[in-house]
Amino acid sequence: MSDLVAAIPLWDWLVEPLQYGFLRQAIWVSAFVGFVCAALSCYITLKGWSLMGDAVSHAVVPGVVVAYALNIPFAVGAFLFGFGATVAIGYVKSKTRLKEDAVIGVVFTGFFAFGIVLVTKIPSNIDLFHILFGNVLGISQQDIVQTLIAGVITLTVIFLRRKDLLLFCFDPNHAKAIGLNTEFIYYTLLSVLALTIVTALQTAGIILVIAMLVTPGSIAYLLTDRFDHMLGISIASSVFSCVLGTYLSYHFDVSTGGSIVVLLTLLFVITMVFAPRYGILAQRSKQRSNPIAAEAQGQELSRDQA
Amino acid sequence: MKDMQSTTSTLNITVDDLSVTYSNARLALYNANCTVEAGTITGLVGPNGSGKSTLFKSIMGFLQPSQGQIRVGGFPVQKAQKRQLMAYVPQADEVDWNFPINVFDVVMMGRYGYMNLLRIPSAKDRRLVMESLERVNMSDFRHRQIGELSGGQKKRAFLARALAQEGKVILLDEPFTGVDVKTEKRMIDLLMQLRQEGHTILVSTHDLASISTFCDRTILLNQTILASGTTAETFTEENLAMTFGGLPVSSLRQKSRQSEAEV
């Protein structure tokens, strides 16, 4: 009986916010964004493109400002500048002897700085804080439409080209050897990356979007050796964090993007420690029982070869 | 002539005056001329850093040569790739063994070039994948993640991918490193079978001992082609000393002058 009484406030606490339309809307928008980011996240983590993701997310800033100034959809400007930055990175890398990380560092900070200069010079009602950290609770209908369009295009491209993208991440040389256009696949993945960042711009903001692109895939990678499972785990952890994070940000009146990423990071830490096979504890216990395990494995290997 | 060659069952590789320069301006390979005869097993031999991988990557089209021409069965490399003429078995350290993919899916990637853009495998694709796995005795391991395999099994998995691709030309880059003697022997048996079936096989290796047991022809390489011909002809003490020992500068100069004269 007392359990029931205690449960009622909790129930109220859970349901009460849902009567606000803006919050329901924020929750499903961020769940959608979490879904899109998590799908791409698997490819980005396997390809080792986290830094590229960071670069693209920063490079969209001037695009957003220019778009507002010219009165065109922010998604268009953001995509053009994000994708343009990746082309610039490719060009500088092929023309100089610099290593890729240096080129990425130079190009994206350049784009970002240019954006900051524009924001402070061009008169507009853009709130720099919202671009940097997202503002899904105050998202406008127009922005939701743009988010949806960018997200649906991204998901469609990933779904249709998933096998080639995976081959490109795994073995680009083989892709070339069987006559696939690897340049085209490279730019496909980059443009999808730019589109995903456009999708997540309103929810997470450009500073935190990289977490949405790297953490879900990393969590999943520690939990499985199968790509389809990886995709499922990545999406589940991301959507969970986005929904709960948005919810908590309302309750505790904190940044939405911030609480989503804090939750994702918590999930990551738990996974890193407790993952059944690749977690720190599992690795440690494997080491402890090492002599026997190593021997057994050795026997197995020699049997396989026989 | 070119079309004739494409309809016959075996294909050769011709490398004509090939030079490759890396972006740090280091010349990796210069004025390389050689022919990999159709229907042979040819060994590509040279010390580390001799340009073996560079020549391999140029033949596979992974590198853009700064000069020269390569033809496979009379076709330029890109055309040959589009026609699925060439299969490549990579070195062990070129592969990310932690990638979440199993053996069956790796071998299926050999068939992508035959599929439509969505890469949906047909019954034929599945059959060929299973047959290829059986040929290398890997059927039982098809559901294993690739990192769980032993050194020899890893090689066999990628050899199965090359078989599934049905390329007439197969290039193997250092296939015997990290492989035990038993597996090496079985792989060599399989390569000899494939030659029987009309495949042209190019194997790069720095393991001199096994060359004479299975290579019909040998190409000796150190920055340029030093010798090429049947293994018996090529494997002379003098040639090997020239390839692996300190290269006498005079012979180098002569070589390059000769090839310049030919041009």
Automatic annotation (TrEMBL), chain A:
Compartment list: Cell membrane; Membrane
Does the record carry Transmembrane helix as a key word?
A: yes
Provide a GO biological process annotation: cellular response to iron ion
- What protein name does the entry list? Metal ABC transporter permease
Q: Which InterPro entries match?
A: ABC_BtuC-like, ABC_TroCD
Q: Which domain of life is it from?
A: Bacteria
State the Pfam families in the record: ABC-3 (PF00950)
Topology in the lipid bilayer is annotated as: Multi-pass membrane protein
Q: Which organism is it from?
A: Vasconcelosia minhoensis LEGE 07310
Q: GO terms for CC?
A: ATP-binding cassette (ABC) transporter complex
Ranges annotated as spanning the membrane: 26-46, 66-91, 103-124, 144-160, 180-198, 204-223, 230-248, 260-280
